[in-house]
Known about the structure:
two-stranded parallel ribbon, 14 helices, mainly alpha
Amino acid sequence: MPERHSFPWGLHALTQCLIVLSITVSSSKTSIWTRWSIFLPIAVTSCYLVCYTSTGDVVVDQGLGTAILIQLMVAVDYILITDVQRNIYPKDQPPRNKGAEVDMSLMKRFRRALSLYTNPRGIGWSFEPRTLPRPSTKPRFAFVSSRIIRALASALIGTFASVMINSNPALSGITLSVKDMGWFHHTTGVFAFALNAIAQINTIHCVLAAFCVGVGISGPEEWPDLFGSPFDAYSVQRFWGYADVASGIASTTKIMHHLCGHKNPPLSNKPYTALVFLNTVFLISGLVHVGGEYMMLGRLGSSLGAFRFFLLQGLAVSAETIVSNVLSLSGSSLASPGEAALPTPKLWTRIVGYVWVLLWFWWSLPFMVDPGILAGAYGPHRGLTFERLSESAVNV
């Protein structure tokens, strides 16, 4: 196991600044050698942060490791692949004006680069997915107030989920897998894990939205909900796409679009090509999440849980597409995130879909959960449990 150093927050911030500056100065006139000379220090630094440093908290390490590799994927896209100044433009800009801002001022390029770097979903840009939740139409004060309330509610839900996790014996290290202590602890364990992750991500998103809109950096329309309605997630494909639960996957999808040579390939008309494309997206997403698992464990886990989890998601969507096409179910085609939503299938089909999605994640989520058990990320030593809360209530 390599020696781990204290995580250098300053170096991490410097790397992010370097990416933004690189996006600012890069253009079609920048040679490939210059692009690589800019990118390589970012790549080396990112690998160093993931492989040789630690914050001392395994949960923080897991999130940081994933975020750093997502940041690296953004650098790959904007520095090595995409001509940001010509091929990315505001979505309301007429196509005939595309690339008209090549000679814009340095300050405008910097603001553009900062917006792109902090906006992986591409909200307001030409690559914005059409499946995003509808933007808010609330006035500024009402929007900020609603996001503060949502942040508090999400934080409360996350606290409850954290207590559930710490109280679950299947997650405390007694066994190596959440599946080893029966269906009850398995079910409550993966449910609490998912609920806690969603609550934490939503809390951060709401706080950032309230701050940016409150101080005038952006408008309410630029902060649509991070998650779509759970009632739309009646297939694994819709869970990851239309429910909009993986901005990291959205970023890798855009990279694949650029590598294929077009912004929105007609996936629904080429099902087999689409399946290869989609599985490659999940492959890249799995590799990104390996960074979090490596940083958390301090080594490459033997199970590669996160990598296997994301590979399985691609296989599940592939199986859904093939089965639904054979059965000719409504909404069976594999749609690109940039295309309009397919017709909603009948109620009975959606009910079967909800059951399928729940069972799928009940079975596949342990691949993501189990490495945390090995790292000691859960259990009574991490914080409050129901037992401690009940003892405190009795003592009061």
